[in-house]
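explain this chain.
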Amino acid sequence: LPFKIGTVYYCNRSESPFAKEVSAVKLSLDDLAKLSDIIIVCASLNESTKHIINEKFLKDMKQSAFLINTSRGGLVDQEALVEALKMGTIRGAGLDVMTPEPLPMTSSLASCPNVVLLPHMGSATTQTREDMAKLTVENILAGLSGEKMPAPIL
C-alpha cells in the first residue's frame, strides 16, 4: 500500500471484491470513525446517506484525523463540521464538494484555517474529462447494441 498505510478500513452495505485486493477490513460506520486517521467519503447522496457525516460521527473521530469529501456536499452536516474544525474535534478537512456550490466566501466553513476547499474540480483535468466522455460514449454504444457495457453502474 502507498504512503506506508498499515490498514485500510471501509464501510459499505456489502462486501467489496476490490477491498479484498488490498486486504481492507469492513467496519461499521461507528468503528470507521473511531479507528481511522483519514476518512475519505465516496458515496452517493440519497435519503439514507444525507448527513451521514454528522455531529456524532465527527465527535467519534480521532482528534488527529482528517475528513476528505469528494462525493456530494449533502453527505456532510456542514454546521457540525464547522464546529468540529473550530473546536479541534478533528485535525482538518479537505472538501471538493460542499453545500451550496459555489460556497459563498462569507460561509463560516471558508473561515476555518484547518480546511482546504476546492471548487468541485477534482476531475477537472483535460485528460480525465476526455476519458470520461469517451467512456460515456462507449457505454451508450454498447448498451444500444445489446453488448456488455465497459463501465456499468452497479
About this structure: DSSP finds five helices and six strands in the chain.
